[in-house]
Amino acid sequence: MTIVEAILKILRDHNKPMTASEIHELIVAEGLFTFAAQDPVSIVRTRLREHCVDIDLKKSSSKRFFLTDGKQGKNVKFSLCKDSEIAVER
After folding, report:
1. Sequence spans of domains, the chain
2. What does the alpha-carbon distance between residue 67 and residue 80 come to, in Å, rounded to a whole number?
């Protein structure tokens, strides 16, 4: 399972907006992915942002699964796009 697949599973299963930190905690608790990075929450946040409809980065993926609550910083909450089974292509 990739990090993005683990994030998708957490957001689908819990059906509520969450911060990168909350998502990371649940990925670890449910044993969905083993992180080797020194700052795994940063890795989760980066993957969320790369696949987010309302964030455009140079490294953004063409497949967008997530939305933000419009806030910025570490407390931004992410949720699934309405139809995350089919990624929003950009």
Report:
1. 3-89
2. 6
Q: What is the pLDDT along the chain (90 residues), one digit of tens a residue?
A: 999 999 999 999 999 999 999 999 999 999 999 999 999 999 999 999 999 988 777 777 778 899 998 887 888 999 998 765 544 343
> What is the spatial distance between Cα 15 and Cα 60, in angstroms, rounded to a whole number?
24
**Cα Rg, the chain, nearest whole Å:** 12
List Cα–Cα distances, 54 to 2, 27, 51, 82, in angstroms.
Answer: 22, 23, 9, 13
Look at the alpha carbons of 71, 74, 80, 84 in this order and tell me if their dihedral is positive or negative.
Answer: positive
